[in-house]
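TA notes. Do not distribute before section.
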Amino acid sequence: NGITKLKAAIDKAGLARTEEHRMAVKKVNEVRNQVKETLADLVAAARRPVTEWEAAEASRQSLVDDFFKALQAELPQSVADCEWWLDHLNEMESDLDPDVFRAQLADAQAALTARVEQVKANLKAARVVEAERAELEKLRREKAEREEREAEAQRQKAAAEAEERRKAEEAERIKAAEERAAR
């Protein structure tokens, strides 16, 4: 039975050593995780200014991109739309902040100036088209009024002729009736 006791003692000692190793590994993992979290916090803290700068830069670049995108909108065709766009473009010019546009400021000013010239050209053309349209409408209206007056004159003339025919027929009937009565 000595061997059984020895086997049990060795097994018990092995289990105890295994438990000691498990506890040691657990403590090492806890310390490792704490160090990992601390280092991650340090990395985040060290990177925070870069992260904030990147966010500010992305926001600034988004403003610049939106500016150039707005200039690419379809050119207006009507006088009212052209006038609105010119007002809007003037407002955009006052928004050209050198701190925002930086190296793209000259490009932005050139693009804005070119767009203003395009809208002014469209405004000039739209004014011509609208003036021609107004003149054409005036001529159509005058023609319609003239045709209506002529049609009314025709109706009155036709009514007068019909009345004369009626009176002549009536006079003829009366004359025929008088001749029959005289015989």
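Switch to the second chain here.
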Amino acid sequence: LAHTWAPKGFDLKVQAPGQAKRRALLGVRDAADGELVVEVAKTKRSTDFIRLLERLDWIYGPKASTVPVVLVLDNGPIHKSKATTKALEERSSWLTPFWLPAYAPELNDIERDWRTLKRLHIANRVLRSEAELEAAVHNAIHAINQARGVHVVELPMAA
């Protein structure tokens, strides 16, 4: 559900073609400059989170920066799996996970970014294909980063 306008006493109905398509957004926000780095996936699995970690390798890894990085994680299942634990351990020389308490989304700053993305950029639009949905998400992330004055680095997309 999203906030929208409709005549008083009437339910707003938006025609949506076909089945509703969903995408999982996995992302991080750089605390220094506010840049969002987002991975869009059809699923929300450990392999998708590891793909996000690989992007972070390129941006913040030991070859890119000498500053240690702290990654704030909630206790979602994809953050606790064996594959993810191994991937985090492989990056322990430059990446330190900081675990939020369970069931505390109000402590996770990126939740506000997801709310902004949904309410201001994606809501009240009919997107006719999965490709259109993904393009809208990428355009919204780009707009959010630009509004924050972040210099956006385009990374090659995974196939």
